[in-house]
Amino acid sequence: MIFNFLHFGGFKMSLVNDYFLLYHGITFEQNLDVEEIEATIDEDTFTIFALIVSATRKNFDKYLPLTSFKTLCQQLNVKSPSSNNELNHLQHNIVQAILSNKSKQNISILHSSFEYLKSENIINNENYNKLISLFDYKELDLIEENNNLANNINKHDAKKSSFKVLKSKIEDLLSELKNDLSNSEILDELKGTQNYLDNQKFSIGITGVMNAGKSTMLNALMGREILGSAVVPETANLTIVKHNPTDNAKVFYWNQQEWDRILKSAEQLESMRDFVNETNRIFGDELKNYIRPVSRFDEVDINDLSSYTSAESSGKKCNLVKYVELGSKLDFLSDGIEIVDTPGLDDPVIQREEITKEYISACDMMLHLMNVSQSATLKDVEFIIDALLYQNISKLLVVITRADTVSKEQLEEVINYTKSSIERQLKAQNKDSKLDYILKTIKFIPISGKMALLHRTGREQEAIDAGYSIEDTGILEIEQYLNETLFGSNSQKGELVIQSSKNQLQKIIEKQNSFYNYELKLLSKSKDELEKELVDFNKRKAVNTRIFQAMSEDINYYKNDSKEYINSLETFLQSELIELQNVIKKRVVNDVRYSFEKTKKRPENSRIKVIIETAIKDGIIDVIRDYRYKFIKKSQTIGEQCEQKYHDLGFTIGHKNENFDARGFFQDDFKAGFLTSNNEVLITQIVAAVSKSKDSKINELDREIELLIKNQFSSIEEDIKVKAKKVSGLLIDSFFDTLNAPLKTFEQKLKNDEKALESQINSFEENDKNKAQLSIDIHKNIKKLETMSVTIKGLN
Predict the structure, then answer these.
(1) Any idea where the Dynamin N-terminal domain is (predicted)?
(2) Domain ranges in the chain?
């Protein structure tokens, strides 16, 4: 029977396990009801303990018949064993008794007894070394310095550490493991964990209306005037700033499909029409050199970047630019920070707002800037609410810029006004209940960007003369907030990254220890036993390989089934979005009808706008929630089927041997990125239709709105389908990687065990001479890895 060949996780070593593995070369489980040791613990007891635990399967038959041995067992108040199996059970209980009554004095008696047994040739030098290694003072935590050190470590670790501290500790462990281990597959896994840590990005989104002071604040934050800033609007394009050893810039242009959408929007919106006309006038036939089926990008000199991104540049290349990637060697970016600097929220090109929302929804936190002299515009308030309720932003810092131009009292008034504006807008959207959540998620910090920039660019005296120290500017408070949010002890993303890295390391250690355990077992065998082990191994290998292939085929079948199910969910999405169109139409028409009945007038345009936007956003969220439910239900079924089918073989994908829960596995999915479409054209069209409506022609309005929604919803529908399919595909791949992990581990263990077995046979004579030392060395490696495992668990 093949049993539990897949389950390597959760193996915890103890002194008992160590004893049987190192001294006897076996793993031992109690299956007999043997009396516990109830003798009085004294010097004589530990002397008896030493004799009994020194017996092995090779010499036990010399011990058991002896009257003196039986007398010693009587002194322990236990029945004298009559077989090796009964002896092992007695030894098991004795090792536990040693552990329960360990002290420097008692362990010293053990060591003296082992010394005596060696001198009398009752045990050989090899077994003596193993026993001394097992019952070592340090291993049993009987060295006072170590206990104090452990206590200090525990006290220190009780306090939650920051992401950077924990990352550094994990990197130290990775480095240590890399130096200690030689298995190529294990080393590849260590490298994968290191790459995972190195490639984590922490994104900060910067938003605000034009002239909010984004570029000035960012330049101060980075300590260099890297982004254009002026009194007039400057940066017209979304700019992604990343760390790079050398300064560089890439400019990406609209592709043909995106430009066609811009042209279509221009048919309905005057501001877009002006933008398109200006672009056509300036570029003419040259436009086709920039707008291509696949987005073109140019690498440009960072000093010439403003000619591509400045709204004030006469060339107006910014009209053709979709976004910019900027690489800089600034220290601020060196910890994996990426900054997404967005164009103004009041940008007339609505497609830029869509790109902004795409990037913002993936950011770890957001800074929203408001000019103190024009703060809390309707656009500001709408964007804040949208970001927190619909774009998955969990941290929002509202920065009040140009704080040096007003008094502290006026600053406080601006903050209070912003809060009351948010409350009013929430009431207009019937979302009053979200007010407390939003106000708890927001933090306000005033800043004088100009003064901060002077301090950071070598002109601090000018700022000091104006009455502003670096602390007065607000830049230090912003930096502290960013650092704590992204890398502090309560960083949400940081905690996920650290936990994932810890899990990866624990799996690597468990896997390596399973390899070591097998090597220890082999070292205890004779050459004949090794050759028989190889024959048995090959028989098991053939059976296990067939089971492995069957499971692999099953998992591939489930994966294909899942992908087909995702395709069927596209039909579900389509029908749900058609129903959503009907809901939007009904809400608008019913409100118009109600308004005519109650007030004899059409509803306000602002009210119609809120109705449409709220219906679309809430509706899409509901559709995606239902989609997610169906996706998770399917994944849950597959996970349960796999666990049930292969349960007897130890197959498990649950945590701590609990049943698999797909909701927990997919806890961070489908949360963001589905509400990025700009609905300005649709809103404009419906508002225009409502403004011409008549009480007597509601049915005509109903038909007109239905047609408008149908025409505009096609792009929204396509966008959601593409995103849902992409997210689902990535999650399915991740899910089935997890399902396949035990199989890969099993296959890797088979190869490693076979290699170890063949190596032990081929080098038996050489190993046999010093196998005690080899066993002790391997045992020390196991203990070292166990200590690392405990250290990893204690990281917090």
Answers:
(1) 204-402
(2) 31-134, 203-224+331-490, 253-329, 525-762
